[in-house]
User: Which sequence fits this backbone?
């Protein structure tokens, strides 16, 4: 993801083939959710005989194991060329195991927590004088976040957006989290909704944290362009190698098209991917036709032919790139 270009560039593509054990585990988990019944309320306090379970190492699931392998291969590919600092993952990976995976690759994680995530302020009160020091303070109430953590408030029409940033604790994470909560309120109906973003980098400001997570959606545009223009949905390969090559070629052409469109003169701002394909298709037709002629036409005539034929399939009319002088 290029922050300067505000777009994503696909570099590696690999197929995901889940094993039978993974499929069975996924089906069992879904079935358990469907038949889940409310549990009887247990007594407060820690159950007798329970022991501390260290979470520092995390649990490497098959899914995270695959991602870790891809991530290491990518870091080796771009080593010394493109420095990376943050790994941005969607809310599915907003957990301790994914954070540990990112930090093992010397990266900081940016992701999203559940809207009802149990977050706590660090305890700052007096010590009891015995036993371990209390770690967790008050639980975060998303409907009553202290104003001291408010960073920005904007109003657009009836919608008010408040952004809060604070360092909070989660019992499933072993380290404090840099949390940004975005609260939207409809001033007419007083309806509220919020999003909880977080990063393992406690020094990251709220503005780039929101910006980096929002840029993650640019990846979807890569897949959209690959499907719409470069055949990602249309290839008929069935072998592993064939599927891999077809997917790589489709996403590679997304990068090629972006680079070619960057060279378009300023007088053609609406130049699209369809225009690019029409141009190169027209140039190929003209080139093959010229080779069949007994004599090649004059350069000015050739440029007129190229411009005319290439413009037949374009979505936007083009200006001539030649002069008659």
Assistant:
């Amino acid at each position: 993801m290029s922050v300067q270009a505000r777009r994503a560039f696909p570099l590696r593509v690999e197929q995901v083939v889940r094993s039978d054990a993974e499929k069975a585990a996924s089906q069992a988990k879904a079935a358990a959710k469907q038949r889940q019944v409310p549990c009887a309320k247990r007594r407060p306090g820690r159950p007798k005989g329970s022991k501390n379970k260290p979470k520092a190492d995390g649990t490497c699931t098959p899914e995270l194991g695959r991602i870790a392998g891809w991530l290491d291969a990518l870091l080796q590919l771009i080593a010394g060329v493109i420095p990376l600092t943050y790994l941005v993952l969607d809310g599915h990976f907003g957990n301790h195991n994914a954070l540990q995976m990112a930090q093992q690759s010397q990266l900081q994680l940016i992701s999203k927590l559940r809207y009802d995530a149990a977050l706590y302020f660090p305890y700052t009160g007096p010590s009891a004088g015995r036993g371990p020091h209390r770690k967790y303070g008050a639980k975060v109430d998303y409907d009553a976040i202290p104003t001291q953590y408010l960073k920005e408030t904007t109003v657009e029409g009836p919608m008010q957006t408040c952004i809060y940033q604070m360092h909070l604790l989660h019992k499933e994470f072993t380290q404090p989290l840099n949390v940004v909560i975005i609260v939207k309120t409809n001033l007419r109906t007083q309806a509220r909704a919020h999003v909880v973003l977080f990063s393992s980098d406690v020094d990251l400001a709220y503005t780039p944290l929101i910006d980096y997570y929002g840029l993650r959606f640019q990846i979807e545009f890569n897949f959209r362009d690959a499907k719409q223009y470069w055949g990602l949905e249309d290839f008929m390969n069935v072998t592993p190698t064939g599927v891999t090559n077809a997917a790589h070629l489709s996403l590679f052409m997304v990068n090629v098209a972006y680079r070619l469109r960057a060279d378009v003169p300023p007088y053609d701002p609406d130049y699209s991917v369809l225009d690019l394909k029409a141009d190169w298709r027209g140039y190929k037709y003209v080139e093959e036709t010229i080779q069949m002629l007994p004599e090649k036409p004059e350069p000015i005539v050739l440029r007129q032919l190229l411009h005319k034929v290439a413009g037949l399939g374009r979505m936007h009319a083009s200006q001539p790139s030649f002069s008659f002088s």
